[in-house]
Amino acid sequence: MAETGFRPIDGGLLAPEGFVASATAAGIKPEGLDMMLLHSQAPTSAAATITTNRFRAAPTYVTERNVADGAARTVIVNSGNANAATGPQGMVAAERMAELAAEATGVPAAEALVCSTGRIGIHLPMDRVEAAVPRLAEALSPENAHEAARAIMTTDTVPKECAVELELSGKTVRIGGAAKGAGMILPNMATMLCFICTDAAIEASALGGALREAVARSFNCISVDGDMSTNDTVIALANGRAGNATITDPDGPDYQRFAQALTHVAEDLAKKIARDGEGSSKFVEIRVTGGDTWHQARDVGRAVSRYNLVKTCIFGEDFNWGRIAAAVGASGVPVDPARCSIAIGGITAFSDGQPVDYDLEAAAEVMTRDEIEIHVDLGMGDAEAVCWTCDMTPEYVKLNAH
Amino acid sequence: MAETGFRPIDGGLLAPEGFVASATAAGIKPEGLDMMLLHSQAPTSAAATITTNRFRAAPTYVTERNVADGAARTVIVNSGNANAATGPQGMVAAERMAELAAEATGVPAAEALVCSTGRIGIHLPMDRVEAAVPRLAEALSPENAHEAARAIMTTDTVPKECAVELELSGKTVRIGGAAKGAGMILPNMATMLCFICTDAAIEASALGGALREAVARSFNCISVDGDMSTNDTVIALANGRAGNATITDPDGPDYQRFAQALTHVAEDLAKKIARDGEGSSKFVEIRVTGGDTWHQARDVGRAVSRYNLVKTCIFGEDFNWGRIAAAVGASGVPVDPARCSIAIGGITAFSDGQPVDYDLEAAAEVMTRDEIEIHVDLGMGDAEAVCWTCDMTPEYVKLNAH
User: Model pTM?
Assistant: First the structure.
C-alpha cells in the first residue's frame, strides 16, 4: 500500500491519540452491551452526516444542532431502541442523553452528540440510561475500542473496526473507526452508525468536506435491503494531538492524502457492513465502468445492488445475468443496451448489446464462490464506481419477520 | 354496485363480442401452455402502455410501433422466454412473431402486437414458435378465455381474469381482461402482462387516455418485490361490436363511465397479481390519505409497499408500525411526522407525531389476518391513494433463487 500513503494499524476507533471510550449493559436490550460513551481529551473539529429520512430519530436532531459549530468532544450511543417516531417525549430523551454525557465528561451540553439504533416507536427507558451514564464515565479508557464497537451492534454478527496511519508534515497521524449496521441498509445513510476518530489537526470545514466525500464513496455505495433508516449517522472527531500542520486547504496535498485515508477507513467499514448483511451468505461487489459521470456509474451500481431478484439468484448460485440487465435498465440512467456489457466473476455473458456464449461449467463454478464480482460496462464514457451488497436469503426474511 | 354503473359478469377476456383466442403448448416452457393468440373479428381501436425499463424486450418495440396508429387486431404472446437482452436476433424473432400472427389471422403485419415473458437473455426457439402458430390459428374460439389466461402465466399460481358490463347510449358494453404477473412486479409496468378487450365503440385516442389513467391507478399501484421488469405491457383492444355511440370526448359522460369500468377491471386484475405475489402468504392494502396531491399519496403508498422490512414483519405477524414510519420517511415526499398518523387493521399506533397506546392483544389478532390494511394519514391535504402488495416470505427467496 506504499503508493496510497497510509498503512493499516491495530486499535480501531481508539487508535488515534487522546480518545477514550467505554461500554456497558444498561438493560435497553434484553442482554449484552447496549450503551457506548466516546470522548476526546482535547477540543476537536467535528463533522457529521445524517440520514435524509423524514421520520428521522430525535437524537439525529440533537447531533445535527450540536455539531453545527464544528466542535464536539463527547458522543453517547445506545443500541436496542431507535428513539424514532417518539414525538416530543423522544426529543426530551435525546436532549437528556446529551446533557448526561456532557456532565459525565465535563464538557458543555452543546459539545455532546447522541446516536440511537434499534426498534422504532418505543420510548427509551430513561431510568436505565440515567443509571448507566455514571458507570460509562468511570470506565472511560483508551483500551476499550473493541467493547465500544460491540456496544453499538444490533443484528450485527461481528464488530466492525478499522484504523490506518499516515505521515502529514512529518508527523504520524492516525484515523480509527467503528461502525454498526446489518439490515435496513441503503445508501443515503440508512440503520448504520459510524464513528471515526483522528488525531490529525484539521479545520472543521475541511473535515466536513472530506467526510462527505468519504461517505458518498463508501456508506452510500452499500445496500443490504434497500431500506433507508431513520437513524443513520456518521460522526468524525479530529483532536489535533498528532501535531501536524493544521489542514485547512481542500486543494492542498495534506488534505488530499488525509481524505484518501479517511475514505479508505469508511470504505473498509462499509464493506464490512455489506459483508455482515442480515442473513447473508455471499458478498457482492458491483463494478460499473464506462459511465459518463461517477454519479451515473454509481446509480447503476446501486440499482443492481438493490434488485431483489439479483440478490436472490446470487443466493441460489444461478448465473442469471439477465436479471442484472433488467436492474441496469431500471436504474433510471439512460443506458443504451447496445453499448452495454455484463460479466459475473470475469465471465462475460452480454457484450455490445448481445448475449454471448460462455462456458457453462465455469459460470457454475463462479457462482459457488463466497465473493461474487459483477461488472457492468455502460460503453458511454470513462467514469466508474463500485458498490457493495450481499445476497438475499430465506434467513434474511426470517430474521426480519419478528 | 348500482352507483358505479357497471356489473361483474363471467367470461373474462372474451366476454366482449367479437373476440376469439387460443392457447397451446409450444415447448418454450418445459411443460404446459406457453403461447396465446388473441384476435378481434372486427377492426379495433387499440392502445398500449409499456415498461420504461431501458433494457426492455424486443417485442415491446414491435408492439409500440404497431399500436402507434391506434389499430391492431391480433396479439401473439409467449411465456417462458422474455426475448429481452437478446440483441438484433431478438428483434428479428419479435418481428417474425408479428408476421406469423398476422398471416395466421389474415391481417397486415402492422396490425399484430407481440408480448413475451419469462427468462431474460435467451434466444427464443423460433422453430417451436413457427410450428405452434398454425395450431393456434386453427383453435381460435370465443370459448378459450380461460386457456388464454393460463397460457400467459409464468410463476403465477392462478389465472387472473375479470369482466364487467355497463350500458352506454342504450347499448350493453362489455370489458374483459386477463393478466399475468407474480414476481418482478413494480409499478411503471414491471413482468406483468395484461390484455383487455372491449366491444365498446371508442376512438383510439380516448381509449389510450382511459387506459393510461386505469394503469396509473391499478398496475402502477402494486408491488411484489419492487423490481421493474423488461417486458411489462398492457394492451387494450376495442372493436365497437356493442354498437354504442362512438366515445370521442374525454369530458363526456360515456367516456367517464367507460373509464371508470375500465379502471375497475384493471384494479381487479392488479389486486389479483398482488394477491398472487411469489411466495406470499398475505395480501396488503395500503391506504394513504391527507396528501396534498394524489401523486404524493401514491408515492408514500408505493414506498411502504416496496419496503422489505415492512413486508417481512407482515409475514412474521409483527405489529411493527415503526417500520411503516421509516418507509413513509424514506418515500421522498416531504411529510411532516408531527402531522402523520399510522394504523394497521384499524388500530392506531401513531397519531399526530406521537406513538399512542393500543391494545396489544387486538394488535396481535390483526396481524394474524390474511388481509392486512395499513392506513397512513399525512395530515396535509385531501388527496388519497391506495396501493397493494403482499408480504415477503422465505419462499419468495427460495422461488427466485433458481
Answer: 0.84
